[in-house]
Amino acid sequence: MDGVTGNAASADRLIRALGGGVVEVRSALPREIQQTIFEQAVAAGHRTERDESLREQLAAFLHARHPRTGGGEDHHAGRAR
After folding, report:
1. How many structural domains does the chain have?
2. 4-21 burial, b if ≥16 CB within 10 A, otherwise e?
3. Is position 42 within any domain?
């Protein structure tokens, strides 16, 4: 496994893929886990961004993708799988 995670580009790719997977299933997770994932994302993003705009941007992004509050499955329109 060290060969996979040792390369920064590979690690970034894996993190993006995992994050994308989490976004796709987040609304199906228990609310406590959703909140933990959200707070971890905010903390990770604040390593380089010091203001609260990231929190607001993430909240708006997730709200728009949630089946009850956003477009439901329509948010996948035009996106390649």
Report:
1. 1
2. eeeeeeeeeeeeeeeeee
3. yes
Angle between helices 31-45 and 53-65 in degrees, nearest 10: 140
Domain residue limits at 23: 2-76
Give me the phi and psi of 59, to 5 degrees please: -60, -45
Res. 20: pLDDT tops 90: yes
Q: What is the pTM of this model?
A: 0.67
Is residue 15 in a domain?
A: yes
Task: Evaluate whether residue 51 is within a structural domain.
Answer: yes
Token pair for residue 64? 């728009």
Rounded-to-integer distance, Cα 66 and Cα 72, Å: 6
